[in-house]
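Bench log, entry 3. Co-assembly request; chain sequences pasted below exactly as received.
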Amino acid sequence: MLDGLKKANAKGMVSEMIANIIIGSAIFGYAGWAFYKFIKKSKQGKCAACSIKGSCSSNACGPEKRK
Amino acid sequence: MDIALIGNPNTGKTSLFNNLTGSYEYVGNWSGVTVEKKVGILKNQRDQLIDLPGVYTLNPLSKDEGVVTIFFLNEPFDMLLNILDASQLRRNLHLTIQLLEFGAPIVIGLNMVDVAGNRGIKIDSRNLSACLGVPVVPVVARTGKGCDSLAEMISAEAGQPDIAFEVDYGPAVEKATAALKEKLAGRTKIPARWLAIQFLEGNQYVREFLLNFIGGSELNELLEFVETQLKTDGVKETLEQYMYRKRSEAIETVVARSMVRTEGAGTPLSEKIDRIATNKILGIPLFLLLMYLMFMLTFDWLGFPLSDALDAVITGPVTDWISAGLAAVGASEFINALILDGIVAGVGGVLVFVPQIFILFFFISLLEDSGYMARVALVMDRVMEAAGLNGKAFIPMMIGFGCNVPGIMAARTIETPKERLLTILLTPLMSCSARLPVYALFAGAFFAGDKALIVLSLYVLGIVVALILAKIFSITVLKGETSLFVIELPPYRVPQIQALWRSTWEKGKGFVKKAGTFIFAGSVLIWLLSYAGPGGLKVPMDDSYLAMIGGIFAPIFAPIGFGTWQAGASLLTGFLAKESIISTMNIIYFVPDEATLQGLLSQHFTPLAAYSFMVFILLYVPCLATAATIYKETGSRRWTAFSIGYALLIAYLLSFIVYQGGKLAGWA
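Structure output for the full assembly:
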């Protein structure tokens, strides 16, 4: 019986570890990606980094050029 | 058939375009909003309508207006559709005459007959048509009234012969025109008379075009000939002024025959309001009062309670759910701390300010859509002129209150290179929305009774510093000519809720999106740097890597009141995005809610140091995206470095004056 409990406990620990690894890598993975995207976009400046690019009708950010 | 739609700014061109083509398009508030070349298909499914930027004349003042001249010189089209504002007939006809001189088939859409009627002006479109020799169709583009007959007229007029209307510019000009005609005979399809008139008026694009056929010295000779002839005839004006006068005289004849003033119409409401809103003495105080009310609503009356409630939700139920969820999956201490102390604190700390940001944007949109912002530009013109700029430069600056990036982009509408560069360099001093959470937090902690006044003082400080620097730069590093400011004042109107919401959302959504992306990532990174140190993981925060990095800057900031590693670290992250200053502080001073954070801050800052910190945040550096935009717009590393350098210098200087001056005055 004690053996069974130990096994169950070990199983629980493994699944907890897996959960931790999944959460941790998801967070760091997403953070890394978001950080990379942000820096890339900011460095482009102009339309890419503009907060109103969706509705802007100035020459440089016009629909044709945004493509 | 290609039809070019052309008219003065704010004559309802965009509405007419949408009515004739049935397509939807964003309608903005600033004059000259249509800068790109837009093409739509007319409802007959056959003809194309090309929407040209709004211009007052074909002789371009700015790059934007150059688009139109380039179009006339290079692109083939079959017909012109000229839209006129019936209430501003005299000014509108200047462009019309230049179009008539071009000689292409033309139909005139006489718009805003209703507005003109309200002002006591009635236009006899048949007489106008007879004077100009082209069809004139009265329309109300806003409602679509008359658009069908206009469309019919366009189809009927296709391929009509040339136009007979001519302005008599006097013998000198006509002689030059004849000479040019002879030289150009058969070499270009563009009418020689139009080219000659435009050239003599000083149209640079036309001059360049003519250089393809005629030598520069010959062109100069022609110009000199006309100028000397006019002088001997006793004309004292410049050639450009002379031609403008001749055209005005022709317009007076047309107007006299086609315009009837009806009696009995009182002063329109817009004009009554403008007597106060654009008053020389009252204009600026009224603007400041409105801003003060806006900040009271944002920070005190409405925004603060809402943010407080949101804070309670995030730090209460949301945090509880997340911790319960983490416990259920058996998350380790590391993951627990990462999510709760890092992400929830960092992202949540920024999200709390969403209500305040949206309220502020709502009121800014309200002021824009109602037509008041155009008045502010006019009111500011007098002050701006003293600083070596003009009122037009205030428009990019006001856009910069939302986000500096579109503000800098909007500087493209400014005519002279000097003023454009000045505006680009100074727009980052406008307090963008990302800086707002810092004010909200610090003003709440240290100046609870005068939150709105403190924030207003920062916004005004940004404007005042920008104006002083404009003056300094324009007499030192940036000498050059200044241009004249012309702005169309649209009549006041009650904004539509839907348009208001859209424009608020457009301005604010970037903030929300950034919280979910960059602030999330930044929070993870900052938390990790504060969790780890040379001594391993889970070190006391003062021994973390973040403390080490921030500590490098601490001594530099000591003389301006905040020589702590915490301030150093948050200012460093602020270069990437200003919002991250708040998320960094939330992580560093990790506390359950905003109120406790404010309590904790008072241990690290005195009120004077807090104000000095806010002044520093307002001015210190443009964020990464803004710096990149400055680089793209100026095309110069030197000016980009300059914009960062001068901002750092001026921020330090002013914070130093505030802090040390305040200490001397005994406020510390």
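Chain A has one domain: 2-66. The helical segments of chain A are 2-44, 63-66.
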